[in-house]
Amino acid sequence: MKSFAFIISPATIKQLKTLWPAFKFMPEFLIKSSLRKMPPCKVLPSKRIRSIHGKEIEGYFIICPLLSRETAQPEDEFIRERFIGAARIAIDLDVGILGMDGCADKDCGFAKSLKIPVTNGNVLTAWSVFEAIYRIVKVRNLSLKDCSLAVIGANLSLGKLCSRKLSGYVRKIILSGGNREMLERLKGNIAQLNPVEVDIEEQVTRAVKEAAVVINADSALQLASYLEELKPDTIVCDVYSDTNVNKQGITFIRGGLIKLPFGNSLGINTGLPKSIISASMAETILLALEERFVSYSIDEDTNLDKLEEMADIAARHGFEVWVPEAPVL
């Protein structure tokens, strides 16, 4: 039966050392200076992952020695070649679908050129962000209808999905990131969906100042660059940062995380708690469990119906959005 492969681009040197023990005793400065000279990929098999219906699946993890923030630069020919090389490995492994973070988000044309179905997991990631915010707001006895929402990285496909999905639930949306023309187009799309107030603020630090809820969908932006501008009691859902927030009153959510059923684990150390995986990885596994071997999340303007579809698929197999600050009761 066809299975899956997923490209992992480590977030930090520490994670790279964990995933690729050959680099464990190499000094960090040496690794940073020689990343591009390292072997192109390392393949690790996954443990068997079991759905609540008893269906089981195994796959492969292709470790690509590029830090995840580098993969936000798909125009870099070297980085594109690394991803293409990883895709060729997946094809040789005869898997049905390839999952990846970052690169497909910024360059759909590149992903579509690969001779294998591809997903970047944006659909399940966007759903997990929506559910995380919904649950946190409920725990704090607030109403989303009274909240203003700032979306950082609203020019990216994940940011667009989050903005469009939440536009029916909040009082106001502030779009930030990218050029104004792209944000104006998104503003027009939102106006066709829901009668919500939409502002555009290209400067992130100004966008977050008046927001009660902030989503960071831009992998290239560090939380520290806007943390001091947040007002007390702000809820921040950051898909890419695992930074502990010490600013008083700020509720920080690490977005885009999924809990596997039955305490399943992948058999590799991704830096997350056991049985917790990224939503992009979960989407890849779920599509393989469903035998839906089609490119799924790489369109520039994904239909919002896909969020509900993927949420249903996740629930069907027992995959749950993980928000320890607001657990499912």
Can you walk through the features of this model?
The chain has helices spanning 13-19, 28-34, 77-92, 103-106, 108-112, 122-139, 157-166, 180-193, 204-207, 279-289, 305-317, and strands spanning 4-8, 42-45, 49-50, 56-57, 59-63, 97-99, 118-119, 148-152, 172-176, 197-200, 213-216, 235-238, 251-254, 257-259, 276-278, 320-321. The chain has two domains: 4-122 and 257-321, no CATH class; 124-254, NAD(P)-binding Rossmann-like Domain (Rossmann fold, 3-Layer(aba) Sandwich), CATH 3.40.50. Helix 6 packs across helix 11. The protein has a six-stranded parallel sheet, covered by helices on one side. A five-stranded mixed sheet has the order 2-5-1-6-7, with helices on both faces. The relative contact order is 0.17. The chain is of the alpha/beta class. Residues 103-107 have low confidence and may be disordered.
Low-confidence stretches: 103-107
Specify the helix fraction band.
25-40%
What is the total domain count? 2
* Strand order, largest beta sheet: 10-9-8-11-12-13
Number of helices: 11
Q: How many β-strand runs?
A: 16
Beta-strand level of the residues, as a percent range? 15-25%
Topology diagram in text:
Blueprint: E1 4-8, H1 13-19, H2 28-34, E2 42-45, E3 49-50, E4 56-57, E5 59-63, H3 77-92, E6 97-99, H4 103-106, H5 108-112, E7 118-119, H6 122-139, E8 148-152, H7 157-166, E9 172-176, H8 180-193, E10 197-200, H9 204-207, E11 213-216, E12 235-238, E13 251-254, E14 257-259, E15 276-278, H10 279-289, H11 305-317, E16 320-321
Parallel strand pairs: 1-5, 1-6, 6-7, 8-9, 8-11, 9-10, 11-12, 12-13
Antiparallel strand pairs: 2-5, 3-4, 14-15, 14-16
Helix pairs in contact: 6-7, 6-10, 6-11, 10-11
